[in-house]
Amino acid sequence: MRTLVIIGHPEVDDSQSHQFLLQTGQAMTDVTYFDLGAYYQEQQKFDPEIERNRLKEFDRIIFQFQLYWYQAPAILKAWFDQAFPNAYQIDLWRPILVGKEMGTVVLSGTKLSAYRTDSGQRATLSELLSPYRAFAHYWQMTYLPYFAVGQLAAKNPTQQWRLMFDYVTYLETGRVGSFRALQQTILSQLGKLIDQGFIEQETDALELDLFYQQLVQQADLLEELYRLEGEEV
């Protein structure tokens, strides 16, 4: 599945969080990134026809952005306003978007556990992201679960490694919190290492296959442990 990640940030180069995700995605996947901020600095506008031609080449569209006061940065709103200027272009956009998958990667400097209705931010991330769900519904797209990253700078190396694989899993499958999807990502990355000669084919192929079979057999238990380990405290 061809995936386009639209980055809604005015200065991606200055964002440690976006650079972490961008470098991860570029190194470990074949997804395409579109930096709205850099593009707008050059073109000073978003042309509807150009954006239609861009999106029609992909099967999954993911919007990636930092929360600014509970909203996406203005550059992403500008893209929506200019790429979809009026209702008269519905017939032009609908055949391009219908049936595609749409997801969101949202970054926050706040703990994810703070997004609750009874305390903290007094709103859930699902509520804050509801316009994207409505947009996907309007265009008859499949709306994927959101992928959220909280306080990236505070994560230790082990947590960052886990985030890398979780992020890659989301980009490649659109799934969140699924150990089965994660194990496929890990095995895929191991396969790439084999193909690139980092792992000896003859000596390690059987061990890799055995490792895969063990993961499959223990998937239910490992998925539960994975879920518990990932809960915010």
UniProtKB/TrEMBL annotation:
SUPFAM superfamilies: Flavoproteins. Keywords: Oxidoreductase. The keyword Phosphoprotein does not apply. The keyword Oxidoreductase applies. InterPro entries: Flavodoxin_fold, Flavoprotein-like_sf, KefG/KefF. Transmembrane segments: none annotated. Residues 1-156 form the Flavodoxin-like fold domain. GO terms for molecular function: electron transfer activity; FMN binding; NAD(P)H dehydrogenase (quinone) activity. This is Putative NADPH-quinone reductase (Modulator of drug activity B). The lineage of its organism: Bacteria, Bacillati, Bacillota, Bacilli, Lactobacillales.
